[in-house]
Design a protein that fits this description.
GO molecular function, one term: oxidoreductase activity
Organism: Shewanella submarina
Protein name: Tryptophan halogenase family protein
CATH superfamily of the largest domain: FAD/NAD(P)-binding domain
Strand order of the largest sheet: 5-4-14-15-16-13-17
Bound molecules: flavin-adenine dinucleotide
Keywords: Oxidoreductase
EC number: 1.14.19.-
Distance between the termini: 60 Å
Helix content: 25-40%
Length: 508
C-alpha cells in the first residue's frame, strides 16, 4: 500500500452547471490534496438554467460544506420550502400536500397513521383532509408562516432557490479550495485503445486535459458517459410519459408561499416556485397529448404574476443510464438520467451521487471493479425508488372523466401496468394502512401515506396495535397533538417577514 502525495489523482469534471460545481466543491472539501481537480465548462453552451426546488437533505450538503444557511439564502435569493401542494391530481378539485417532516406522533411502536385511521372510524369514508392537521409543516404552509428556533422542534425544510446563483457561489467556493476552472468547448474525447478508459478531453483550441477519473456533468449532452462510452439508457417514458416543459419566470407575488405548487392540467402539470425576487413557473407536459403551443398558452394564462421573459421549451427523456459509473467515468446530474421534477429530486440525485462517490472513491491505479459495481447498484436502487414515488402521483389520479381529457395522459396512467415494487407498495397500503420503507429509501413512510391518502386510497384496516387505546384516550391523544401543532404554528411569523429578518433582505 502506498498512498500519499505522489499518489495525487487527476480528476476532471466536465460541466459547470449545478452538478459540476456541487461535485467540485464536495470532492475538493472531502478529498483535499489527494486529488487535483480541473473543471471544464463552456460559457458558450451555458447551463440548463432550471431547477429551483429542493428537498430537505440539501441542508445537510450545505452544512457538510460549512456553508451558513443565511449566506446561502441571501446569495441564491432562496425561500423556505415546507412541502409541495398538489392541486387537481386526485380529481380536478382535490388538493393535498406532501409536507416534509413528521405527521402526528407515533405511540410507542404504533405508527401515527394507524391511530388516525382508527379515529376516522369507517375507513371507507375517511376524510383525508383531516390528516394534515397533524403536520406542523402543512399547518405552517396553510398559514404562510415559518419559524426556526434552532432546536429539535424546527420545521424540516428545503429551499426554493436560484440554482444558477448556487452554482456561481460554489464555483468561487471550489476555486478557493484549489479547483482549476477552464472555460472551453470539448470537441473530442480520447480513449485508451486497450482498456477503453477515457484518457483526455480535447478543447476546440487543441488544449488537452488528461485525467485518471472523469466526472460527466455535461447535462443532457452526456458527452462522456453516453456519446463516448455508450453506457446505455433505460427508458421509463412508458411510465412517465411527460417529455417536455415550458419554463418562464414571473414577477414576485404579494406573498411568499413556503411551499411549491404543483397544479395538474390537461396533459401535464404546472409548477409555481416562489423565490425572493421572482416566481419560477413551468408547465411539464406530454407532447403526445398536448400541442406545444397550447401548453405554452395554458402556462401563460395560469401565471399569478406578470411574465418577465418569453417561455423557454425544454425536451427530455425520462430514464437512467444503465451504468452511472462506466470505465473511469462517473455521471452526475442530467448526464446520468432524468426524472421529471414533480418531487424536486434531480439536485438531490446529484447530491447523493456525489456523497456515494466520496464514500467509494478509488485509490489511484486501482481497477475498482467492485467499487464501480457497488456504486452502480446503489444508484440503480435509488433511481428506481424515486421513479416509483413519482409514478405514484400519476397512477392514482382520478382525472380524465371530462371530454377534453378523455383518452388522455391521465387515463393511460390510471390503467398502466406498474413496476412490481410500486404495485406491492400500493396493495400493502390499501389492505393494511402499512408502508414499509426499504433500506436507505429517500422518501419516508409519511411521504407515501400523504400521496396515497391525498389521491383517494382508503386502507381497509389499521394495525390492531391502535386498538389498545379506548376511543376517549385516542380522541384526547389526537386532540393534544393538534393543539400543540396549531399553537406552535400560531407563534411563527409570516414567511416573508422571517426571510427578511433572516437574510437582512432589502424590501422591494
Ligand atoms: C424542466 C426542468 C425542471 C427542473 N426542475 C428542477 C427542480 O425543481 N429541482 C431540481 O432539483 N432539479 C430540477 N431540474 C433538474 C436540474 O435542472 C438539474 O438537475 C441541475 O440543474 C443539474 O444540471 P446539470 O449540471 O446536470 O446540467 P447543466 O446545467 O445543463 O450543465 C451542463 C454543463 O456542461 C457543459 N457542457 C456541455 N457540453 C460541453 C462541451 N462540449 N464542452 C464543455 N462544456 C460542456 C455546459 O456548459 C454546462 O456547464 C429540472 C430540470 C428540468 C429539465
Amino acid at each position: 500500500m502506498q498512498q500519499g502525495v505522489d499518489m495525487q489523482q487527476q480528476l476532471v469534471i466536465l460541466g459547470g452547471g449545478s452538478a459540476g460545481w456541487m461535485a467540485a466543491a464536495m470532492l475538493a472539501k472531502t478529498l483535499g490534496h489527494s486529488v487535483a481537480i480541473t473543471l471544464v465548462e463552456s460559457e458558450e453552451i451555458g447551463t440548463v438554467g432550471v431547477g429551483e426546488a429542493s428537498i430537505p437533505p440539501l441542508t445537510l450538503f450545505n452544512r457538510a460544506l460549512g456553508i451558513d444557511e443565511r449566506d446561502f439564502m441571501a446569495v441564491t435569493a432562496a425561500t423556505f420550502k415546507l412541502g409541495i401542494q398538489f392541486e387537481g391530481w386526485g380529481n380536478p378539485n382535490a388538493c393535498y400536500m406532501h409536507a416534509f417532516g413528521a405527521m402526528g406522533r407515533d405511540l410507542a411502536l404504533t405508527p401515527f397513521v394507524h391511530l388516525w385511521l382508527k379515529q376516522s372510524g369507517n375507513t371507507r369514508a375517511v376524510d383525508a383532509s383531516d390528516f394534515w392537521r397533524y403536520s406542523a409543516n402543512a399547518c405552517a404552509s396553510a398559514a404562510n408562516r415559518f419559524g426556526l428556533t434552532g432546536g429539535q422542534g424546527d420545521l424540516p425544510h428545503a429551499y426554493h432557490f436560484d440554482a444558477g446563483l448556487y452554482a456561481n457561489y460554489l464555483r468561487e467556493f471550489s476555486q478557493r479550495l484549489g479547483v482549476k476552472r477552464i472555460n472551453g468547448r470539448v470537441s473530442q474525447v480520447h480513449t485508451d485503445s486497450t482498456s477503453g478508459d477515457i484518457t483526455a478531453l480535447e478543447l476546440s483550441d487543441g488544449t488537452r486535459i488528461a485525467g485518471d477519473l472523469f466526472i460527466d456533468c455535461s447535462g443532457f449532452a452526456s458527452l462522456l458517459i453516453d456519446k463516448t462510452l455508450n453506457a446505455g439508457f433505460e427508458d421509463w417514458s412508458h411510465w412517465l410519459p411527460c417529455d417536455s416543459a415550458w419554463a418562464v419566470p414571473s414577477a414576485r407575488g404579494d406573498m411568499l408561499r413556503p411551499y411549491t405548487r404543483s397544479i395538474a392540467h390537461q396533459a401535464g402539470w404546472q409548477w409555481q416556485i416562489p423565490l425572493q425576487h421572482r416566481t419560477g413557473n413551468g408547465m411539464v407536459f406530454a407532447s403526445r397529448w398536448w400541442d406545444e403551443q397550447d401548453a405554452k398558452a395554458a402556462l401563460l394564462a395560469n401565471l399569478d404574476t406578470q411574465a418577465l421573459d418569453d417561455p423557454r421549451l425544454l425536451k427530455f427523456k425520462v430514464g437512467r443510464r444503465r451504468k452511472q459509473w462506466h470505465h473511469n467515468c462517473v455521471a452526475l446530474g442530467l448526464a446520468s438520467g432524468f426524472l421529471e421534477p414533480l418531487e424536486s429530486t434531480s439536485i438531490h440525485l446529484v447530491q447523493s451521487g456525489i456523497m456515494r462517490l466520496v464514500k467509494l472513491f478509488p485509490a489511484k491505479g486501482l481497477a475498482a471493479d467492485a467499487l464501480r459495481d457497488e456504486y452502480n447498484r446503489q444508484s440503480q436502487q435509488e433511481f428506481e425508488q424515486i421513479r416509483d414515488f413519482i409514478i405514484l402521483h400519476y397512477c392514482l389520479n382520478s382525472r380524465g372523466s371530462n371530454q377534453s381529457e378523455a383518452g388522455s395522459l391521465w387515463r393511460l396512467c390510471r390503467n398502466m401496468a406498474l413496476p412490481t415494487s410500486l404495485e406491492h407498495k400500493i396493495a400493502l397500503f390499501k389492505e393494511s394502512g402499512m408502508v414499509v420503507r426499504q433500506q436507505d429509501e429517500l422518501f419516508a413512510e409519511v411521504a407515501w401515506q400523504q400521496v396515497m391518502l391525498g389521491q383517494g386510497v382508503s386502507p381497509q384496516s389499521w394495525s390492531p396495535m391502535a386498538d389498545k387505546l379506548t376511543s376517549e384516550q385516542l380522541t384526547e391523544y389526537l386532540q393534544n397533538i393538534q393543539t400543540i401543532t396549531s399553537g406552535a404554528v400560531s407563534k411563527m411569523p409570516p414567511h416573508d417577514q422571517f426571510i427578511q429578518a433572516y437574510c437582512q433582505m432589502e424590501t422591494a
